[in-house]
Design goal:
One of its GO terms (biological process) is linoleic acid metabolic process. GO terms for molecular function: linoleate 11-lipoxygenase activity; metal ion binding. This is Manganese lipoxygenase. With about 600 residues, the chain is mainly alpha-helical. The chain has one domain: Lipoxygenase-1, Domain 5 (Lipoxygenase-1, domain 5), CATH 1.20.245.10. It has 20 helices and 7 strands. The strands form 2 sheets. It has a 5-stranded antiparallel beta sheet, sandwiched between helices. A hairpin with a 7-residue loop joins strand 6 and strand 7. It binds 2-acetamido-2-deoxy-beta-D-glucopyranose (7 copies) and fe (ii) ion.
């Protein structure tokens, strides 16, 4: 039998008195699915009124998710922005304190004159207020090690790397003799590719991007090969091609300075990628799906209660981006490798690809990039990002499994929920989502996956790239945000100092990166592990869900303890890396896209 289905407009007409619509979904009282609502007419009228009050407005920062317009939409983004501003004032004053102290230290040192000055003067005893946790252990001391550079692809910067597939043309050439000399075992690019051991990060698309003119900088658009060493099992760098000017290709066999500069140039491109991708895979993906829910789900729907919690101050970020990051001559134009216009181009280009909802599910993404096999097994001896991200996703999934089973006894209960069916339709149409499951695909399992990925996107996707990650792991002098002197026309560079940001730019850069950090969230109940237990709205959900919320906290806290317990072994390694991966600590990262 077909479940009852009442089109929204008719329901609204039938309802008579229209309840005052709210820009937030925090009605009081127990939440329930529409079939169980004692007052279906009033409920439908509320959905209708909200659907009218929220309008899908134009995207911000490139062409991606719509941004809310309409009376409710504007009220909501203003209110979210005001909420964001409270923490902004707080972190800004901490940063002001820290950058002032840093300025004094630089002055006492007589400026930044050596590589070691950047390592010590900018970090020793610095950033105490805005990054009290300190920087990623080992990231500065071991910055020049190849294993650090390569393992960043499998931990701190996990979204750009992919395997070169067996049927694929080689992305760029590298002589057989050279390859064999680096890899041994008479290896060629072809033999590495055919044995599933050749990987690429390709940022060559950046050669079309424009430089901002406010500060003089120089373009690079590096692509890099990595490989798995058959003897040690290590994941290592093989070559870096600059793709601009003389189009030099560097390898570990070059002089120490040449190779180090190549890795630094790559880092500028990779930082651009990570920061811009974060907009697509966290903000745009969740805003699109959440707006679809604002148009279709009642404030009284249990799923709306959850989505609202995850979207805390969600509509502040893209406004902040327009105002403070990507504004003409703003932080981005002053600091990063390419201009704000390139940022928008990146978002527009990547939204249909990296903004795909199901394509972004952890295993779907990693399989598509050839980093895990069909069974979900990693190809690497160690894959730190996958390890933690999967555990977080699994804990979320366990919670949502209980939640969904507690509200929908059977699949029929779910197919009878016309609000959820409308949501799925809306996400695929008016909300302009890509690859969200179709209405026909709605099952308890697919819904659990949708919620798990939504929560993953506001936590793992956001904070693996942005949040507190850049100030902790994107350390100078190795991780330069842009190139400050013309790149070499031939190998043999002797002095790397001209390629580093000057003191004023370095301080500005660190302050900017610190502005994404929220070190005080762990103490204020806003870390990932707190998402449910500190939410007032949990009283509106049933006892099974509240009980699952306790298990969620236990599981997340357990993961946090594991992460906080990581140490270097006798070889100076942690998870096979010369630095300690703690970027996804659930007692540190927010559960929402905080900025
Ligand atoms: C709903 O929640 C928002 C944000 O948490 C709050 O500002 C507002 O006062 C709440 N409204 C009601 C009616 O509870
Ligand atoms: C926002 O919505 C209003 C009312 O429909 C409309 O007049 C206005 O043009 C919209 N703004 C944008 C930027 O689309
Ligand atoms: C920075 O904050 C600390 C306390 O956290 C305070 O002792 C110090 O005086 C402040 N420094 C500046 C320059 O404001
Ligand atoms: C590659 O190495 C072989 C054997 O050492 C040598 O004969 C050949 O000239 C080298 N080719 C190039 C292009 O260097
Ligand atoms: C490399 O190739 C040469 C010539 O074919 C062969 O003698 C040698 O054993 C090979 N070395 C390795 C490590 O496979
Ligand atoms: C805690 O984590 C360990 C692994 O670190 C795992 O074996 C154990 O089952 C976890 N316990 C809970 C309650 O999640
Ligand atoms: C990396 O740095 C840490 C901290 O300085 C050090 O203890 C460790 O031995 C280093 N690891 C390697 C492989 O050099
Ligand atoms: Fe963000």
């Amino acid at each position: 039998m077909k479940p009852p289905y009442m089109p929204l407009a008719i329901a609204a007409l039938a309802a008579g008195a229209i309840a005052a619509p709210s820009m937030y979904s925090n009605a009081s009282g127990a939440a329930c699915i529409p079939q169980h609502d004692p007052n279906p007419k009033q409920r439908a009228a509320g959905v209708s009124a909200r659907s009218v009050g929220f309008i899908y407005g134009p995207s911000l920062i490139g062409e991606a998710a719509p941004f809310p317009n309409g009376t409710l939409g504007n009220a909501r983004s203003r209110s979210d922005y005001n909420t964001w501003s409270i923490d902004r004032k707080k972190i800004d004053s901490l940063i002001a304190n820290d950058t002032q102290a840093m300025g004094v230290s630089i002055q006492l040192n007589g400026g930044l004159k050596t590589w070691q000055d950047y390592e010590k003067v900018l970090y020793d005893g610095q950033l105490k207020n805005s990054n009290p946790r300190g920087v990623t252990p080992g990231m500065i001391a071991n910055a020049t090690q190849d294993l650090l550079f390569s393992m960043e692809r499998l931990s701190e910067h996990p979204y750009a790397v992919r395997r070169v597939m067996a049927n694929e043309a080689l992305p760029f050439p590298l002589g057989n003799n050279l390859t064999a000399k680096i890899v041994g075992e008479n290896a060629t690019l072809e033999s590495l590719r055919d044995s599933s051991r050749l990987f690429i990060v390709d940022h060559s698309y950046q050669k079309d991007y424009k430089l901002a003119t406010v500060v003089e900088r120089y373009p690079v658009a590096c692509s890099a090969y990595f490989y798995i060493d058959s003897k040690s099992g290590d994941f290592l760098p093989l070559a870096i091609r600059t793709n601009v000017d003389m189009d030099l290709t560097y390898t570990p066999l070059d002089s120490a300075n040449d190779w180090l500069l190549a890795k630094m140039m790559f880092n500028a491109n990779d930082m651009f990628h990570a920061q811009m991708l974060h907009l697509v895979i966290s903000h745009d993906v969740t805003e699109s799906v959440h707006q679809a829910a604002l148009h279709t789900l009642s404030e009284n729907h249990p799923i709306m209660v959850i989505l609202e919690r995850l979207m805390l101050q969600g509509y502040s970020s893209r406004i902040v981006g327009e105002e403070l990051c990507f504004n003409p001559g703003g932080h981005w134009d002053q600091l990063m490798v390419y201009s704000q216009f390139s940022c928008r181009d990146f978002v527009t280009d990547r939204w249909p690809i990296d903004g795909r909802f199901q394509g972004g599910y952890l295993e779907n993404d990693l399989k598509a990039r050839g980093l895990i096999d069909e069974k979900g097994e990693s190809l690497f001896r160690s894959f730190p990002f996958y390890e933690d991200a999967k555990e977080i996703r699994d804990i979320y999934k366990a919670f949502f499994t209980t939640f969904i089973n507690s509200y929908y006894g059977t699949e029929n209960d779910l197919s009878g929920d016309f609000e959820i069916r409308n949501w799925f339709v809306e996400a695929n149409t008016k909300a302009k989502g890509h690859d969200f499951p179709k209405e026909e695909q709605l099952t308890k399992d697919s819904l659990i996956d949708v919620l798990s990925h939504f929560a993953f996107a506001t936590s793992v996707s956001h904070h693996s790239t942005n949040g507190g990650a850049p100030i902790s792991s994107g350390t100078l002098p190795f991780h330069i945000p842009a190139i400050y002197t013309p790149i070499p026309k031939e190998k043999g560079v002797t002095d790397l100092m001209p390629y580093l940001p000057d003191a004023a730019t370095a301080v500005h850069y660190l302050g900017f990166m610190a502005s994404f950090n929220r070190p005080f969230y762990g103490d204020s109940g806003r870390a990932l592990e707190d998402v449910f237990v500190t939410a007032d709205s949990m009283t509106r959900l049933n006892s099974e869900t509240n009980s699952a919320a306790k298990d969620f906290l236990t599981g997340m806290h357990n993961l946090s303890e594991k992460i906080r317990g990581r140490q270097f072994n006798n070889d100076g390694l942690s998870q096979g890396m010369p630095f300690i991966y703690r970027t996804l600590d659930p007692a540190y990262i927010p559960f929402f896209c905080a900025v």
